[in-house]
Amino acid sequence: MYGMVNQALEALVTERFGAETWAAVRQKAGISDPAFITMKQYPDEVTYALAGALSEHLQAPVPDLLRAFGVYWVAYAKRGPWGKIMLASGGSTYELLTALDAMHARIAISFPDLKPPSFKVRPEGDAVVVDYQSHRPGLAPFVVGLIEGIGALFGESVTVEQIASKDAGAAADSFRVRASKAA
Ligand code: HEM
After folding, report:
1. Residues 94 and 175 in one domain
2. The model's pTM
3. What are the helix (H) ranges across the chain?
4. Could you list the residue range(s) of the whole structural domain that residue 49 is in?
5. pLDDT in tens, 3-37
6. CA–CA separation, 145 vs 74, rounded Å?
7. In this structure, how many other beta carbons lie within 10 angstroms of the beta carbon of residue 127?
8. Residues 16 and 34 in one domain
């Protein structure tokens, strides 16, 4: 994944646990580069190794960390150079969810080697169902956090329930999402 993703993880860990924790995690993950470059492609293994090392260091399950990282990512992306593209892509949780593929396609103009995920959204009563497809395994908890982060972006309260899992043989990871304006 592009260095931007690893940089966001670094920002999260440094903000919440300090620079020493990040140094320890980086070392445990076997990463010698002192800093990630935003626009450089790194093997996905680097990101997975960082998540695994952080999990060991904090004694916290990887899925919990990925979920927290998802929430963080939205706020991080908002203040970055592509934040305006994200905000212009929708004005509510449902709108942005529906626009995610188009948004990543616009972002891919800057990141030509992007291997973006795909999100298909369909209404279901007062909720929506989101089918998530990825080239990468194990990121469903990240998506849960991302959707929660999108809710926070718009001041909406959001519940996310995973209703199908690729790990369990489904064609996609599917989530039922309910968003409402927080009182
Ligand atoms: C300004 C906003 C955003 C930017 C700049 C951005 C950019 C990126 C980049 C660079 C990657 C790494 C993929 C690669 O290197 O091949 C990525 C992956 C991903 N993005 Fe975004 N993204 C943004 C917002 C979002 C939002 C709001 C979501 C909400 C669901 C999202 C969902 C994902 C997921 C799930 C992945 C993991 C890759 C995978 O599933 O295979 N992104 N994005």
Report:
1. yes
2. 0.97
3. 3-17, 19-28, 44-58, 62-78, 83-88, 93-107, 140-153
4. 3-60
5. 999 999 999 999 999 999 999 999 999 999 889 99
6. 9
7. 15
8. yes
User: What CATH number does the domain containing 148 carry?
Assistant: 3.90.1520.10
Domain count, the chain: 2
**Could you tell me which residues come within 8 angstroms of residue 145 by beta carbon, excluding any fewer than 6 positions away?**
66, 67, 68, 69, 70, 71, 72, 73
Q: What are phi and psi of 179, to 5 degrees?
A: -125, 140
Within 8 A by CB and 6+ apart from 15, the residues are none
Identify the segments of the chain with pLDDT beneath 70: 183
CA distance 32 to 35: 9
Going by C-alpha positions, the residue among 62, 67, 69, 99 that lies closest to residue 4 is: 69
Query: Do 75 and 126 belong together in one domain?
Result: yes
Residues with CB under 6 A from ligand 1: 1-2, 4-5, 74, 77, 82-83, 85-86, 100, 104, 107, 111, 114-115, 117, 134-136, 139, 142-143, 146, 150
45 and 101 inside one domain? no
Report the chain's C-alpha Rg in angstroms.
Answer: 16
